[in-house]
Amino acid sequence: METVAAEASNRETPLQPLSELPPGTVAIVESVQGATDLRRRLLEMGFCNRTMVTAIRRAPLGDPIEFFLRGYHVSLRREEARCVLVSAIPSASREERANPSGLRLWK
What we know:
The chain has 107 residues and is of the alpha+beta class. Helix content is 28%, strand content 29%.
């Protein structure tokens, strides 16, 4: 536990549960927690460390939440999404990833 806390303090962006990600936000999975069966199932669905995930939308009452990762859409209950810790990617970083050369593109 101490190493996880030390890693978290060295990060530029704080870890947050996947359930708190606003729609349209892109994040990187940092860890999966929870009961053994739930953790195994989340890992099988693709929520592995260093995987990019996008929050798509929430149901009208906030549960379930739809995410996009590894080329497919998956919906999780809020309680399940709380077990996945992510670090959000700032908007500027996403733009830099789309245009790594830094050249100005015509729109």
